[in-house]
């Protein structure tokens, strides 16, 4: 994928990214391949070796015990505990509401031809919980809680051994059945292949760094994954009613995640574009995370000026931003015209920060234009929709003749016999 500053009808750029968001991944691919191979072959011994190498950790026992879980919970200050529970309650409530829309199906499509599907929870899921630049207390909530709502039998959580103890408390409160102090690509390998300590899972979810992402890509196939997540993104759509200071604040709030965060404004108003650019520069002078946020803005920040609303919508759908805020006079009206995004924040009162932390929608979302074809992590990520059918004699008499004829036309004699046999038995 190329950088999104190429020529686009009706769009001029007040500020362009100075770097390409996609870099050469060859070195990461090779390193990850070696890690996966070693863990597949040596199991816990390789995990322990890579934990020492990458995390400077020499933990004898990877799994967090019940006593350690309770100690982490006891160490969590009361307000943080209450806030984490608030986030859990909101994420659970929204996941339950979503799950209620996923119903089993039974339908008679033709007389005697019955079809349907079941909603079946995945048996065992692995949730990667990143340690990250900060202790992201909401990270375990977003991956573990929907899994439990979906009815996953066993949820395994892996987090870096040097992660803040509050992260262990978050995994515990969110409902993780087992928690392991294993980070990076070696954690993905352990969950994908299984070791004497870590059980093999059926699907791996959760964001991580480039090595975690690449490991998920390489194990995909026998093991399911949620998605391949790149650096975080936020774009804001705004017209002349947009508040420049608020928009600048929101852009920098997301930019402090990582130096590779993609942040952008797409607007129809030139004065607002200039005001937001000035506002970002001004706020960086006293932002405590300016070293990270400023680098992200310098390298990946973008301001696109559009000639009209149609151009703004077209360019936004082309970007397909992970987080998309709408700050326009008719925010709901514009929102209804948008197609491609990870999660949408309608009106200036709806902030990405609320979703990042505690409001209830999931913050594990598609990046790098994946919003063109998929949504984010949700309760449906943890279930399979598995179809079935059953036929009465009346149904066989309807579908067997065309099935047998089609098989004969294709030269598939075995198929023809299987279709015809049931019809012949009914005739006799």
From TrEMBL:
Stored Pfam families: Histidinol_dh (PF00815)
CC terms in the record's Gene Ontology section: cytosol
Binding positions for substrate per the UniProt entry: 232, 254, 257, 323, 356, 410, 415
Cofactor dependency: Zn(2+)
Keywords tagged on the record: Metal-binding, NAD, Oxidoreductase, Zinc
GO molecular function: histidinol dehydrogenase activity; metal ion binding; NAD binding
Transmembrane segments: none
One GO term (biological process): L-histidine biosynthetic process
Active site: 322-323
Domain of life: Bacteria
Comment on bound cofactor: Binds 1 zinc ion per subunit.
Binding site for NAD(+): 128, 186, 209
Residues reported to bind Zn(2+): 254, 257, 356, 415
Family of the protein in this entry: Belongs to the histidinol dehydrogenase family.
Protein name: Histidinol dehydrogenase homolog
């Amino acid at each position: 994928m190329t950088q999104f500053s190429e020529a686009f009808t009706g769009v001029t750029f007040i500020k362009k990214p100075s770097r390409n968001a996609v870099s050469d991944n060859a070195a990461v691919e090779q390193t990850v391949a070696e890690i996966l191979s070693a863990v597949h072959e040596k199991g816990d011994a390789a995990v322990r070796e890579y934990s020492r190498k990458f995390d400077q950790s020499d933990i004898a026992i990877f799994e967090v015990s019940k006593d350690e879980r309770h100690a982490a919970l006891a160490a969590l200050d009361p307000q943080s505990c209450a806030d984490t529970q608030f986030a859990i309650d909101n994420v659970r409530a929204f996941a339950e509401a979503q799950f209620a829309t996923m119903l089993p199906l039974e339908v008679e499509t033709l007389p005697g031809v019955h079809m349907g599907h079941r909603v079946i929870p995945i048996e065992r899921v692995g949730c990667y919980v990143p340690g990250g630049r900060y202790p992201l207390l909401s990270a375990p909530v977003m991956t573990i809680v929907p899994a439990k709502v979906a009815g996953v039998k066993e949820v395994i959580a892996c987090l870096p051994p040097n992660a803040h103890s509050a992260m262990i408390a978050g995994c515990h409160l969110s409902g993780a059945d087992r928690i392991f102090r294993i980070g990076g690509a070696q954690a993905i390998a352990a969950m994908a292949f299984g070791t004497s300590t870590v059980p093999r899972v059926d699907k791996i979810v959760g964001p991580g760094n480039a090595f975690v992402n690449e490991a998920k890509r390489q194990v995909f196939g026998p093991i399911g994954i949620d998605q391949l997540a790149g650096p975080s993104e936020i774009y804001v759509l705004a017209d002349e009613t947009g508040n420049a200071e608020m928009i600048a604040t929101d852009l920098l709030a997301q930019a402090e995640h990582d130096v590779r965060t993609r942040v952008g404004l797409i607007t129809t108003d030139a004065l607002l574009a200039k005001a937001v650019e000035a506002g970002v520069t001004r706020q960086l002078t006293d932002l405590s995370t300016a070293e990270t946020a400023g680098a992200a803005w310098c390298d990946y920040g973008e301001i696109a000026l559009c000639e009209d609303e149609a151009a703004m919508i077209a360019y936004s759908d082309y970007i397909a931003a992970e987080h998309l805020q709408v700050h326009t006079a008719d925010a709901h009206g514009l929102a209804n015209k948008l197609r491609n995004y990870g999660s949408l924040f309608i009106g200036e009162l709806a902030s990405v920060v609320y979703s990042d932390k505690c409001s209830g929608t999931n913050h594990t979302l598609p990046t790098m234009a994946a919003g063109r074809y998929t949504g984010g992590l949700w309760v449906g990520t943890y279930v399979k929709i598995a179809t079935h059918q059953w036929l009465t004699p009346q149904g066989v008499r309807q579908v067997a003749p065309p099935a047998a004829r089609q098989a004969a036309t294709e030269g598939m004699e075995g198929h023809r016999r299987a279709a015809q046999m049931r019809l012949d038995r009914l005739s006799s």
